[in-house]
């Protein structure tokens, strides 16, 4: 195994750790940053996931998630990995790969029945099909 593979698997492990602390609802909010977020503490994945908290640095994220080393100090490594990859600064993983990884990890935590249902939905033509809305009578 080469060093890049080891680092890549380390990144995956740290991302999984952070997502476990965030939970599904905050992950969903954070994923919106991949669509229209920015490389700043006010618009990044963590800013969206942890809103309404105001983030100024990775230390804020570590405190909110209680990410600590065995000695009790803030453990910035997992946060830094996600933040820098989101910014496009990681040579080992692209921003799109990070988003795909987050989605995959989140999907692993969902029950199989839910995932089977989601995979069975045929979205072909959904954007081209007009939506018809009709009011219901309350008589």
Topology:
Layout: H1 3-22, H2 24-31, H3 33-36, H4 45-49, H5 58-65, H6 77-86, H7 95-108, H8 112-120
Written overview of the protein:
The radius of gyration is 19 Å and the shape is globular. It has eight helices and no strands. With 139 residues, the chain is mostly helical. It has one domain.
Task: Kindly summarize this structure in a few lines.
The protein is mostly helical. It has one domain (3-111).
Largest sheet: none
Distance between the termini: 71 Å
What is the overall shape? globular
Average residue pLDDT: 81
Percent of residues in beta strands? under 5%
Number of domains: 1
- What is the structural class? mainly alpha
Q: What integer value in Å does the Rg equal?
A: 19 Å
Total E-strand runs: 0
- Tally of alpha and pi helices: 8
Helix proportion: 55-70%
Question: Keywords, please?
Answer:
139 residues; mainly alpha
């Amino acid at each position: 195994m080469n060093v890049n593979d080891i680092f890549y698997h380390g990144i995956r492990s740290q991302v999984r750790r952070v997502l476990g602390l965030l939970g599904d609802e905050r992950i969903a909010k954070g994923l919106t940053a991949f669509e229209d977020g920015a490389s700043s503490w006010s618009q990044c994945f963590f800013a969206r996931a942890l809103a309404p908290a105001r983030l100024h640095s990775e230390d804020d994220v570590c405190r909110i998630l209680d990410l600590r080393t065995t000695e009790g100090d803030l453990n910035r490594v997992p946060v830094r990995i996600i933040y820098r990859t989101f910014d496009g600064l990681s040579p080992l993983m692209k921003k799109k790969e990070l988003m795909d990884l987050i989605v995959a990890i989140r999907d692993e935590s969902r029950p199989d029945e839910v995932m089977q249902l989601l995979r069975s939905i045929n979205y072909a033509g959904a954007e081209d099909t007009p939506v018809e809305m009709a009011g219901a009578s309350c008589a």
